UniProtKB/TrEMBL annotation:
Heterooctamer of four alpha and four beta subunits. It catalyses: L-aspartate + H(+) = beta-alanine + CO2. The active site is at S25, Y58. One of its GO terms (cellular component) is cytosol. InterPro entries: Asp_de-COase-like_dom_sf, Asp_decarbox. This is Aspartate 1-decarboxylase. GO terms for biological process: alanine biosynthetic process; pantothenate biosynthetic process. The gene is panD. It is found in: Cytoplasm. Its EC number is 4.1.1.11.
Length: 126
């Protein structure tokens, strides 16, 4: 059996640029890529908290420490500068890998600086 599991996420990243006339991708601060464990050219899913859009693209590396989150190409229609987004990558794991898997969770502030990291999502009380 194989399961598709959350590998990592950048939570509440702020879009800094939206470039329509650019080859499709999402440029992400290189330090954020490294911290989350997202590889350049890896498929990512973006969930826009501002408008509910959900879309798939790939990551490219922006300058380390720049705070850049640039949604490019056709996806630029789905996110504007200032929008809060969740950027996720997933991995397909076999049964043996599932027992020890923990995602890499990176929580960001309004300037795309790391507030905290973790490997589990706290359950909200009802």
């Amino acid at each position: 059996m194989q399961c598709t599991m959350l590998k990592c996420k950048l939570h509440q990243a702020r879009v800094t640029h939206s470039e329509l006339e650019y080859e499709g991708s999402c440029a992400i601060d290189g330090q954020l890529l490294d911290r989350a464990g997202i590889r350049e050219y890896e498929q990512i899913h973006i969930y826009n908290l501002a408008n509910g859009e959900r879309f798939t693209t790939y990551a490219i590396r922006a300058e380390d420490g720049s705070g850049v989150i640039s949604v490019n190409g056709a996806a630029a229609h789905k996110a504007n500068p200032g929008d809060r987004v969740i950027i996720c990558a997933y991995a397909v794991l076999d049964a043996a890998e599932l027992t020890s898997h923990k995602p890499s969770l990176v929580y960001l502030d309004e300037r795309n600086h790391i507030k905290r990291t973790g490997d589990s999502i706290p359950v909200q009380a009802a």
